């Protein structure tokens, strides 16, 4: 008999095989929708790496990595059904797998005893934050038992709207939220924070040149970087979303010298997911066997989060098969696909008259979830990180998007040794040149301030 039920944000999968038979119980995060036979790999004692690999395949982005604990309790019971009058002692094994950092006990699935993460979200009155904050509060990003304390940072004119956001969050009655603090004060916002999600920045207006936009944002991210340096936890993880994201991240990083440079990243995960989505659409339009985004792996976004970004599918796989074995249209791959990814943001603005918000929030969630909890075994994701020490010939001292493997607890490593074609290499150099020019503009502006 199969039983699949949701318990306080978890899905408990159970298999029962007769009296005295096996009794397996698996507790994982997220909701599960699959056929009973698909659950078989989960319903046995697994190593931590096996559990992570299998469970993540089924749960996708809903899966939260953690230290997996195996509890094996062998119990016996009497079965006096035989005519010989002798008790036949039979045994069954109960195996409960759970994420140690996310489940307080096997009997109280509602318990949330973890220390609250202090999280600041800048631009908190804006549309991206409006989509992002619920994802944080329901445990979708940091875990279903991870308590949070929110610092909502925005400029003074946005404080009334920010109070409205606070009221809505309160009205949601999220059980993981310990505190909600709206503020325009940098010390209040960044004091002892563990995570800084910097969404707020000066938006590009009609007639503005790139250097004008950089100048407006340099002042913002210089101040926020200094506040991070002065007030935040020494192990704070910083994700910059506001554009120009790479150079804004660089500015914040350079103004927070006491924080490890590895702790700063900029968002290119949205471009990464757009690339996967376009591949799903193409494969489903040309193949009889349908695929989903979880079937598409090993795509890369190199460089800047701009129109010079480099969507690279050289190593892409679909259901474990090389992409070029499935999509033979080389012209589409090298031209239309690249252009569509590079121009997707502009297309959304044209259609909505607003920039990406829902998809940006989802990408922020995916970026942070992998950064904190680990990316899927055998997969890599795109993160814009400091280029120091890279092996791809990218100039040092830039915030540049690379393929990385996240190992959990904020650790990651660049995936080295990927083949780079002459076409991709030329594009990588072009986006690096743009970032070098942006950096020079930012440095020149900083020397005048």
Automatic annotation (TrEMBL):
InterPro entries reported for this sequence: Lactate/malate_DH_C (IPR022383), Lactate/malate_DH_N (IPR001236), Malate_DH_type2 (IPR010945)
Residues covered by the Lactate/malate dehydrogenase C-terminal domain: 268-444
Lactate/malate dehydrogenase N-terminal domain sequence ranges: 118-264
Keywords assigned: NAD, Oxidoreductase
EC number, as in UniProt: 1.1.1.37
Top-level division of the source organism's lineage: Eukaryota
Any one of the GO BP annotations: malate metabolic process
Keyword Transmembrane helix: no
Pfam families: Ldh_1_C, Ldh_1_N
Family: Belongs to the LDH/MDH superfamily. MDH type 2 family.
Protein name in the entry: malate dehydrogenase
């Amino acid at each position: 008999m199969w039983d699949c039920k949701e318990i306080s944000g978890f899905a408990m999968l159970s298999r029962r095989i007769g009296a005295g038979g096996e009794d397996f119980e698996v507790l994982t995060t997220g909701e599960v929708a699959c056929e009973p036979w698909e659950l078989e790999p989960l319903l046995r004692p697994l190593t931590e790496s096996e559990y992570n690999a299998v469970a993540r395949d089924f749960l996708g982005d809903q899966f939260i990595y953690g230290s997996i604990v195996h509890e094996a309790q062998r119990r016996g019971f009497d079965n006096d059904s035989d005519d010989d009058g002798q008790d036949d002692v039979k045994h069954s094994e109960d195996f409960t797998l759970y994420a140690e950092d996310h489940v307080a006990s096997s009997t109280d699935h509602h318990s949330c005893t973890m220390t609250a993460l202090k999280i600041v979200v800048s631009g908190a009155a804006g549309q991206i934050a409006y989509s992002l904050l619920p994802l944080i509060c329901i445990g979708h990003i940091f875990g279903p038992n991870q308590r949070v304390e929110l610092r909502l940072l925005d400029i003074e004119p946005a404080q009334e709207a920010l109070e409205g956001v606070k009221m809505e969050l309160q009205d949601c009655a999220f059980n993981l939220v310990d505190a909600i603090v709206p503020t325009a004060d940098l010390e209040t916002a960044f004091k002892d924070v563990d995570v800084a999600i910097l969404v707020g920045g000066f938006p590009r207006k009609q007639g503005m040149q790139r250097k004008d936009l950089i100048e407006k944002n340099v002042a913002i991210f210089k101040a926020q970087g200094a506040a991070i340096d002065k007030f935040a936890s020494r192990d704070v993880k910083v994700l910059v979303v506001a554009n120009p994201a790479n150079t804004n991240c660089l500015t914040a990083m350079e103004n927070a010298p006491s924080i490890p440079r590895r702790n700063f990243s900029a968002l290119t995960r949205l471009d990464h997911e757009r690339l996967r989505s376009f591949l799903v659409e193409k494969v489903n339009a040309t193949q009889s066997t349908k695929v989903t985004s979880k079937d598409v792996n090993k795509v890369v976004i190199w460089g800047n989060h701009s129109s010079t970004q480099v969507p690279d599918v050289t190593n892409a796989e679909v259901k474990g098969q090389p992409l070029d074995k499935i999509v033979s249209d080389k012209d589409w791959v090298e031209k239309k696909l690249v252009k569509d990814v590079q121009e997707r943001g502009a297309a959304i603005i044209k259609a909505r008259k607003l920039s990406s918000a829902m998809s940006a929030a989802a990408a922020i969630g995916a970026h942070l979830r992998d950064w904190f909890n680990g990316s899927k075994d055998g997969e890599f994701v795109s993160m814009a990180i400091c280029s120091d020490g890279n092996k791809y010939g990218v100039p040092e001292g830039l915030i540049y998007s690379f393929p990385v493997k996240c190992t959990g607890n904020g650790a990651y490593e660049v995936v080295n040794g990927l083949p780079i074609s002459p076409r991709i290499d030329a594009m990588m150099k072009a986006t690096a040149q743009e970032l070098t020019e942006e950096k020079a503009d930012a440095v020149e502006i900083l020397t005048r301030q």
